[in-house]
Write a structure and sequence with these properties.
Elements: E1 16-18, E2 25-26, H1 28-37, H2 49-55, H3 58-70, H4 72-76, E3 79-80, H5 84-93, E4 98-102, H6 107-116, E5 129-131, H7 135-145, E6 149-152, H8 155-160, E7 166-170, E8 183-185, H9 188-196
Parallel strand pairs: 1-4, 1-6, 4-5, 6-7, 7-8
Antiparallel strand pairs: 2-3
Helix pairs in contact: 1-3, 5-9
């Protein structure tokens, strides 16, 4: 993968953007537990956001989402994706700018989850983390920051990021098909490899 080149033919640095939930934080097991709490048995492959909202009735999905993202205890109980720290250390050591852009409605619950895993403020903080409301506003923020590579776990969001040249679907459960507007990655090791390319 090539980096952008300016008019003087100097390589411009990559600027990486990350989504939080489903990319940095792995809430798959918590989603299964919350669905069970409301009487629904789901499998791991049902937990990606785009699928999850189709396997639960809308009232149950709404209640689960509120607990998952608004309840500080539940929100902080999610795990971190394997390899996050190693890849972020690699990014930092190579002086590659990176940002978090999340649609988390209550940023403080996401920040608490990042703190629990030692990712805030060491890796993410007020200077490189932004919380927006819609996929379109995520695209606006990415454009403003000059992001060249963005990783998200939702195809619908990636489709809206029209001002980001390189879009990657983080599909750690390998449940989605490839598409023309994104490349798939299934691990943070793959993210590190794409940064090297």
């Amino acid at each position: 993968m090539k980096t952008r080149v300016d008019k003087t033919n100097k390589k411009l640095q990559k600027i990486i953007g990350f989504d939080m939930d489903g990319v940095i934080l792995d809430n798959s097991l918590v989603k299964i537990q919350l669905a069970k709490k409301f009487g629904w048995e789901i499998k791991m492959h049902d937990t990606p956001s785009e699928i999850y909202k189709t396997v639960l009735p809308e009232p149950v999905f709404t209640r689960v989402q509120k607990l998952l993202y608004d309840d500080p205890v539940v929100s902080a109980s999610v795990e971190v994706m394997p390899g996050v720290r190693d890849t972020l250390d690699f990014i930092i050591s190579n002086k590659i700018p990176y940002f978090l852009i999340s649609r988390r409605r209550l940023p403080e619950s996401g920040i608490e989850a990042l703190k629990r895993h030692g990712l805030w403020p060491e890796y993410f903080n007020e200077k490189n983390s932004f919380f927006v409301e819609t996929p379109k506003s995520k695209n606006t923020k990415a454009k403003e920051l000059g992001i060249t590579h963005y990783i998200d776990d939702e195809r619908g969001v990636l489709a809206q990021l029209t001002d980001v040249k390189h879009r990657f679907l983080f599909d750690h459960l390998n449940v989605f098909a490839p598409a023309l507007y994104y490349l798939k990655v299934s691990s943070w090791n793959e993210i590190q490899n794409l940064i090297l390319s």
